Every structure is written in C-alpha cells, then in structure tokens.
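Protocol step 4 of 6: structure prediction from sequence.
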Amino acid sequence: MTLSKSSTPITKSTEAILKNAFAAAVAVADPQLIVPQYLAKIFPRGQEPRGRCLVVGAGKASASMASALEAYAKANWPQVTLDGVVLTRYGHNSPTSYIKIIEAGHPVPDQAGMDGAVEVLALTKQLEQGDVLIALVSGGGSSLLTLPQEGISIDDMRKTTEALLRSGAPIEEMNVVRKHLSAILGGNLARVAIARGARVEALLISDVTGDSPADIASGPCAADYSTYLDALNILQKYDLDTPTIPISVLAHLKRGLAGEIPETLKDADLVDGQVSNHVIATAYKSLEAAAEYVCHQGYEPIVLGDTITGEAQEVGIAQAALMRDYIAKGFDQPLALISGGECTVTIPAGVKGRGGRCSEYLLSLFAASSDAPNIAALAADTDGIDGSEKNAGAWFDESIRQASLSSGLQSEKFLLAHDCYGFFAELGALVETGPTLTNVNDFRIILLNK
C-alpha cells in the first residue's frame, strides 16, 4: 500500500519521526478509544445487556479494555450490573471498580495466572439462560489463561511453554499445542457459556498475522481449526519429546488423538449458540496510521504488510536487501518502508540472550546495511515490552552508526550472542515506553533519505 505523496518538507529529526510513527501505530489501537466504539455497535440503544453481564478476559490489553468497558457502561448502561475477572501481565494493570484485575506471568505461565483462570471458568459456569458473557481478549491471553486439562500440572505447562519458546516455533503453532492442553482455550470458554444458554460477545485485539479469532490468544471463544494430531506433529517438527516435553502432556495429546478426550470447539458446535467474535484492532490498521503520519512528514510510505514472519535475523537481512533495491532504483522523495508481523528468535542451548525479536531484527538490519547511506530504522513491540528486558525495541540512524564505530562495538558479536539489548543499550538507542496497555504485534519502519 502507498499513500499519495506529500510535499511537506522534513523538519523533524529522523529519531523523532521514527518514534512518532511508532506512537501513531500504538495510539490507533488504544482500548480506551476503540472499545466504546464497538460496544455501541454490538449493543445499540435499546438492546443493552439484560440479566447478568459477566466480563472475563485475558491479555496485555485486557485490563485497559475492562476499564474502558466500565466507563462506557456507567454512561450508557446505568441499569446493568457488571462483574467479572480479567487477567493481564504484571505491570499492565488499569483501574476498575467492578471487574477484578489479576496480574500474572507472561510469556511463561505462573500460579497467579492459573488461579485466575480457575476463577474465570468458575464464574462462566454460573451463567444462566439469557445472561451475557463479554470476553475481552488480546495478545498474551494464551499464557495468562493457562488452565491445564486434568492430569497436567502448571509445572508441566510451564516446561512445555519454555520448550516451545526456545524452539523458534511461530506463535500460531505454539497456540495449537496450548489449545489442546487447556480447559479454556480453543473455544472451550464459549462451550461452557453455550451450555448454560448465555450469549457470548468477544472483543479481540489482534496480535497475530491474519487476525483469525481462533489464533488471537488461542481463541477462547472461537471455533478451532486444529486437531490433536496437529499438536503432536508440531512437537515432532521441532524435535520436542521427553524429557523436554513432560510425559503428562504427551499422554494427554495421544489420548485426544485416540478420541478419548473431546476435541477443541468446532464450527458444528456453534450452530445453536449465540457467539460472536469482534476483531476491534489489528496490526494493519496500526501500520496505516503510521503511514499517514510519515506522509505528512514528507515521506512516501510503502506498507510491506503485517504478515512478515521468520527468524528475526533473516528478516533483517531480507529487508536490508529490499532497501538496497529501492536505493538502486532511485527515488525523488524520501521513502518509509513500514511492516508488521511477528518474527521468531531461536536461542541455541547454552546461550542466554538479552532482548527480543524486534531488537534482534533491528540489529541484523543494522549489520546488513553498513554500506547504505542516510538510513534510519526502528523496530518495537506495540505492547511496550520486547522479549526479556523492559524496552519496547530499539532504533538507529547515522549518528548511532557513527557512535558504534567510535565505541568499537561489533554488531556481529552481539548477534552471535543474541544480545541485541546490550548493543543498543550501550548506544543509548533503546525505545522505552513502558506497558502501552495494547498489543497489535510488532512494528518496523525504515526511513530512506536522499
């Protein structure tokens, strides 16, 4: 996608333009803005919830979604009594009066998350005919809503999650496995509500490529396309077997394959149910917002798409090559190459690593573009946390490159150690926002100046 060219001269520094473009991408996915808009569509005037209105959910944005819902209900549904519980990552809380917020571990689940998931399921089992369940779901929900099926401990789930994270498996494949180990994910939450005769309205902020409700936080209210066989094949694909994967997990999946345990929710299960999934924010909308911003700054935006995946270092090299193509062709107006999608980082045994997929991509791009003049770039996670540290990502321009040369920092050594955080921290080039209380996947931008 491209927008019409702007004749506005570039007056801001490249650092400011990079960071403001990222801010624009995050702002368009702010739950405080988008949740009220969609509630008005789902429950038009005169069709407000009747009976009990139970609010549950999980994800990095879900607490902010809950506070936005409360504010809307106070102004528009004075007769409705809200209650419920929402799980979010530590540090991602948002104030609420009636909906309980529980902070828990992510990306590796912990006991707080499991206890909260138990509470979510117990409340859903109390619904009655005519009640409404509003599910507030965003990226991170798969880990936060960890409630293992019978016979699988939280420790077993933790070990399985850690193994999948280290394997380099994309999030969609990780979620296929987690759905088939969960009492809530893979549509199982909606299955409980349907059995009680309740109406389900799920509001989803997407952090996955394709924006499928079945993939967002492993689809607690969506029909699932995957099977127990798919889950076992994924473990086999990445050579994950005992002792890496606990025996209880493998045994459960094999029982499911044999038909001894029900499959995840399927389309046929929804025929008589009142279930709707509403994707209210996506990565592509955020890329468009950033594109509009840079257009006003004198750049021609080129949106490469929101589905770019693969090893972070390989994506960095590929985008450096693409950038060279544009430079070789020549351009009359500065360009901004904008993309989204979730890369992966495979950590070899014995390597700890520091940082995340955004910073690793950026360091790879930095190393692969050392001969390219007048470029600047930023990569950051829209939730404000990139991997193992507290930064959202990192950025660089010509001044950062010169500083790295003056300091004698060798990007290749940092890439080998998967210490992208250490490299950009040394140069004062981290992007630090704190939790943004939303999550629409990763954001990447490359500025090509004349």
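Step 5 (inspection) to follow. The radius of gyration is 22 Å.
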